[in-house]
């Protein structure tokens, strides 16, 4: 046996309660070494780069899965070893790169030379079974990427950081009018249409879908959506709804008092902006199976298992990058690469802590939210105001410590770093993948929660807003017999770079600093800028 992973102690906030009962069953997952992740990346860029002859020729589920499927040798070697221990594993993904099985703690300790014990989280009182070390046979070290749960402890995922204040008066806004002077103080679907030229006309293509991720018992209330539409989209039927998909024991509780701020925001500004684009709310429960990823990989796997996944997928949650072990982080990022290769635009809110990550000021170096560093997703920062927009001070941005800077953004980022000079040297990884990629309004969004109107701030506002614009562009492309936009970044940093409103004022303070500054061109506060729908249409070849 050879030690595969070890940590010296439990993370801060956890105390050892004692050895786990030998008879307690534990569900284990093994990530097998993927056969060709580099080939997956090449295939992703091949179908996502406008200059490629294969642009828009997206992969099938089976073609994408083949790149991350373990080799026959890896699969047979690991399964044979499991069989020797009387264990039969179940593949969890189309590619078969994750295996699951359930054994007693005594068997887990024997198989992995481990010491599974019970740890208590001091603040919450919640208990978890983990080991500080595990080993695998020498002949399996080249075949097993990671075992979960093992040395990775549950972490506090970034909660939706929103400010909530009652709206005393709801102003009337008119679709298609000039920008209403009240928009900076009360953002509505009409404001976004006016600011960005987003059309209010109904989408046509039923095959075009927009998916919204839901976690942490955040539920989207249908009655609240109806009130929102009656108030802000009277041209749409108040009965317009969304479909529901669940995983990990997820639900969508319709008790009015249990309506979630994040879920209400995300659903109301996708259904209410992407007019008649079929929207699906994907609700994950607490029975997650991907450890520190908190259901992110489970949800990606759910979509990967579908023959026709939604073409746009937006998420407004996440921990910090250093809360997630690199092996798990890379595995999830490769799942997003598979989705991109299949024509899915994956968008994430960049986070609300400026350069401080998940809203902590106790940092000596800049903190990276997760999965902002993954080069296969599109990160959305926040702006505020109008004519001109400025950067929202909470808009998270910076540079990954896990992933190197991808070629598609290298020239834009190099220009910013040259202007920045030596400022903040040592506080960030100047060679890392830079984020955010784009931005949109993120302050004073009017949202209905338990039949009351509230104002909400955060990049949680920005990602569904930008995703809605992408979904409408996809509708037009499909109507024209064209493929959807898919993985956006090579297009955004290429032919579409001039189709965004450049944000040149503002900064994102944190960690005792003023943070990065917004400026001409790309910057780590607002990325390339906010959408100009008319120009994006031209960049997409729809003129």
From TrEMBL:
<dbReference type="Pfam" id="PF00082">
    <property type="entry name" value="Peptidase_S8"/>
</dbReference>
<dbReference type="GO" id="GO:0005576">
    <property type="term" value="C:extracellular region"/>
</dbReference>
<dbReference type="InterPro" id="IPR036852">
    <property type="entry name" value="Peptidase_S8/S53_dom_sf"/>
</dbReference>
<dbReference type="GO" id="GO:0046872">
    <property type="term" value="F:metal ion binding"/>
</dbReference>
<feature type="binding site">
    <location>
        <position position="521"/>
    </location>
    <ligand>
        <name>Ca(2+)</name>
    </ligand>
</feature>
<keyword id="KW-0964">Secreted</keyword>
<feature type="binding site">
    <location>
        <position position="503"/>
    </location>
    <ligand>
        <name>Ca(2+)</name>
    </ligand>
</feature>
<feature type="binding site">
    <location>
        <position position="523"/>
    </location>
    <ligand>
        <name>Ca(2+)</name>
    </ligand>
</feature>
<feature type="active site" description="Charge relay system">
    <location>
        <position position="460"/>
    </location>
</feature>
<protein>
    <recommendedName>
        <fullName>tripeptidyl-peptidase II</fullName>
        <ecNumber>3.4.14.10</ecNumber>
    </recommendedName>
</protein>
<dbReference type="GO" id="GO:0006508">
    <property type="term" value="P:proteolysis"/>
</dbReference>
<keyword id="KW-0720">Serine protease</keyword>
<feature type="domain" description="Peptidase S53">
    <location>
        <begin position="186"/>
        <end position="543"/>
    </location>
</feature>
<feature type="binding site">
    <location>
        <position position="502"/>
    </location>
    <ligand>
        <name>Ca(2+)</name>
    </ligand>
</feature>
<dbReference type="InterPro" id="IPR050819">
    <property type="entry name" value="Tripeptidyl-peptidase_I"/>
</dbReference>
<keyword id="KW-0732">Signal</keyword>
<keyword id="KW-0378">Hydrolase</keyword>
<dbReference type="InterPro" id="IPR000209">
    <property type="entry name" value="Peptidase_S8/S53_dom"/>
</dbReference>
<keyword id="KW-0479">Metal-binding</keyword>
<dbReference type="Pfam" id="PF09286">
    <property type="entry name" value="Pro-kuma_activ"/>
</dbReference>
<keyword id="KW-0645">Protease</keyword>
<keyword id="KW-0843">Virulence</keyword>
<dbReference type="GO" id="GO:0004252">
    <property type="term" value="F:serine-type endopeptidase activity"/>
</dbReference>
<comment type="function">
    <text>Secreted tripeptidyl-peptidase which degrades proteins at acidic pHs and is involved in virulence.</text>
</comment>
<feature type="active site" description="Charge relay system">
    <location>
        <position position="262"/>
    </location>
</feature>
<keyword id="KW-0325">Glycoprotein</keyword>
<keyword id="KW-0865">Zymogen</keyword>
<dbReference type="InterPro" id="IPR015366">
    <property type="entry name" value="S53_propep"/>
</dbReference>
<dbReference type="GO" id="GO:0008240">
    <property type="term" value="F:tripeptidyl-peptidase activity"/>
</dbReference>
<keyword id="KW-0106">Calcium</keyword>
<feature type="active site" description="Charge relay system">
    <location>
        <position position="266"/>
    </location>
</feature>
<dbReference type="InterPro" id="IPR030400">
    <property type="entry name" value="Sedolisin_dom"/>
</dbReference>
